[in-house]
Amino acid sequence: MSSIRIAALIALAFSGVGAAVGCRSRSGEEMKQVGLPTEVAPAAEAPATVAPEVDPDRVSEATSRVHDGDPPTVADASRATATSADELFLFHPTKYPAGNWTPDRLTFEPVEFVSGDGTRIHGWFLPVDRPRATLLYAHGNAGHVASRADWLRYLQEELRVEVLAFDYRGYGRSEGEPTVAGCVDDARAARRWLSERTGVSESEMVLMGESLGGAIVCRLASESPPRALILQSTFASMRDVAAMHAPALAWLVPKSKLDSAAALEGYRGALLQSHGDRDSVVPFESGRRLFERAGGDKRFVVVPGADHNDWMTESYSSELAAFVDRIAVDRGH
To answer: Which residues neighbour 99 within 8 Å (Cβ) at sequence distance 6 or greater?
Structure first.
């Protein structure tokens, strides 16, 4: 089957997905501590073989259109460069200056570091006096660090952990265009920077990931186990998400792409994982499969009635606080 034919099928299969789960904002009243944008479904992770090369600016334009809630077109799908079409629909970045980059009641330092291929990556470092833990935070597939200001404030003020939140390439103020391999490399660079800045070894850090970010920190954990791992609304594999939204095309997603379950199989450290039992973006069963592959000290928190980004409830915040209490004590603070 030609790449153009596959691209056409992808566009048809996902013609309603972007509009159905387009990015939206939620106020702090709807979530007790956070106000995150709903991710555009990694459903749009529609698989395909590599399509003909095109101008990266045109790929970026197509991605932005899907992020705004418009369905992808056949032309969009055919514009996947060395980035495959599934990755074109996976990433939905918001670029600076969109959003509030000077949030109230958040103490942070804008930082910049270089990824493995020289791409300049931007992030926010949130210091805390006598931190109870040092945490690297990887967000989901939409928005940017400024979109997570309320959540970062909660981590800083309520949990008293120092945090580095960074934007993948192509997001926020970071350079480049997003790819799976590039975003993983950006996370590696972020972890190195955080270790150098705080003097905390990578093995003593906490890795936290939200949805796509969970898959990325699972990859990091497989390479160098952290002190603890926190996963929120994360999938066992990218193919699982494709199977939920376009089952006839899921086989086109490479099995090894963002295979979080395989990455987590050898992990034996502390794990806190949460998932809404009504998640319409990442299948709840996929989250359970991911959890089952991990060993060691682990806990799975079901968030009753919660959709993809509705996980920040009082019950979950209590579980998270207790988890941080335990690992903070373990670190001797």
So the answer is: 143, 144, 146, 147
Q: Report d(CA 139, CA 167) in Å as an integer.
A: 8
Give residue for tokens 């997001």.
171
Q: Is 324 helix (H, G, I), strand (E, B) or coil?
A: helix
The verdict on pTM exceeding 0.85 is: no
Q: What is the mean pLDDT of the chain?
A: 80
Which residues are bridge partners to 303 per DSSP?
A: 276
- Pair of tokens at residue 55: 């101008």
At 61, give phi and psi (nearest 5°): -65, -40
CB burial class (10 A; 0-12, 13-18, 19+) of residue 16? exposed
Reduced to 3 states, what is the DSSP secondary structure of residue 317? helix
**Distance between CA 42 and CA 89 in Å, rounded?**
7
Domains and CATH numbers, the chain: 3-93 (no CATH), 109-330 (3.40.50.1820)
Pairing of β 109-114 and β 120-126: antiparallel
- The residues with which 111 forms a beta bridge, in sequence order, are 123
Residue from 58, 61, 53 nearest 82 by CA: 53
| Beta-sheet strands, E only, within the chain | 92-93, 109-114, 120-126, 134-138, 142-143, 162-166, 206-210, 228-232, 270-276, 298-303
The DSSP symbol for 319 reads H
Instruction: Give residue-wise pLDDT tens across range 143-197.
Output: 999 999 999 999 999 999 999 999 999 999 999 999 999 999 999 999 999 999 9
- In the numeric block, the tokens 């929120």 are attached to 232
